[in-house]
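Escalated from tier 1: adenosine-5'-diphosphate holo job.
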Amino acid sequence: REKVLEITSVPIMQGENKLGTLVILHDVSREKSVERMKSEFVSLAAHQLRTPLSAIKRTLRMILDGDTGSITEEQKDLLLKTYASNERMISLINDLLNVARIEEGRYVYKTTVTNIKPIVEFVANGYASDYKRKNVILELSFPEEQLPSVKIDVEKVKLAIENFIDNALKYTKPGGRVIVSLKKNGNFIEFSAKDNGAGIPKEQQERVFSKFFRASNVIRMQTEGSGLGLFIVKNIIEAHGGKVWFESKEGEGSTFFFSLPIAEELQGFLGSF
Ligand code: ADP
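Tier 2 regenerated the structure:
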């Protein structure tokens, strides 16, 4: 029968002499199987919810577009709010599915060697109207020289960039400013999003990348969020051989960073000149 064992080994010493080693085998099969079932349940439930939520989205879009006849301003206002709630549910379901895939080891990476700058520009452009609506300045800061390529799964890294730019907007008050930068640092390309928003309380900072974590100050702000985004980002970036970190001061702002290794093929190629 398949078993999952957790193994701990401890040397047994008498003064300087090693008498032997104590090896403890702990059967954690049950815990692992419960964990797997939990993850499969979340995956299944999320999948089942996605189809009806997409159907609701299509129907709302049709009514809003006037395909079923004209609607009053009041009806439009209510439908737009429903549409936004539905979108939030879809995004939560997508986050849950991504977490389940990560935990089941099914988060496949399709990598290509590419330049990250156009990807960052594309994502930032997509957020331009949201930033404008909230009156937060979004600034892009890139080095003048061409950055070396990285070997990435474009869709997954896009998710990571989106999460940082989205959080920076979400946790910054109107009138604030966000600076999104790219730079080369040794053998890595560093991406960062710096804001002058809410910041994260010091005593809660070590939990920022854990699943479902939401800091007390943002819960008070009553912003929407699942606390899954940064957990997903950390997994994406680490699977690429990169790192995620941040600097933050409550009430002053935060800077979130991730680094990605420069594509090795190109390093070798450039080195030969
Ligand atoms: P969500 O934003 O959905 O709550 P995330 O995993 O993206 O989930 O972020 C987790 C928590 O980290 C947030 O709830 C917030 O407390 C904190 N956080 C993340 N980014 C920022 C930021 N730019 N400024 C302040 N707090 C942040």
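The chain has seven helices and nine strands.
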